[in-house]
Task: structure prediction
Amino acid sequence: MQRRAAGVVVALFGIALVLVGATSYSWWTFHEGASETVGVGLHGMKACHEGQCQAISYEQIGANEETRTFFIVGSITFYGAFVTGLATLVTAGFALLRKQAPSFVSPARIGALLCLLLIASAIAFVLLRPRGGPELSVGFSLFALILGALAAGIGNSLLMKPVAERRPHG
Result:
């Protein structure tokens, strides 16, 4: 019982962090003077000048050979965060309702696997960042998404049946 409750709390906390990290524009930031800031996120950029901000999607920016892969991996990570969140919510729902998941699939295993894939995708997004141009500072969103995915993966793992319960006795 305590393992299930802890798993649900940790998984839901992790997914909240994942969604904050996926939707914000602070994977990297760039400051030009005191009045201009640019934030880079998974799905676009946000430019602010003297308090007036405008979100710009990567589709609006356009892509060259160097940035195309970066934009694609950013989109995969962005949408992957929502798929991972949905899988984790299903797992938590089964746990809260004390229902047995269908025997052909374990939502907790799928959720844990998606968390690992999300971390790999986020790392690829970081490694594929275009070089050159202004010096960018690392923002909180990168850490929120990776730490959230780790927490959600741990929460999903806690919701898996212990090995002793899965094996038939006899």
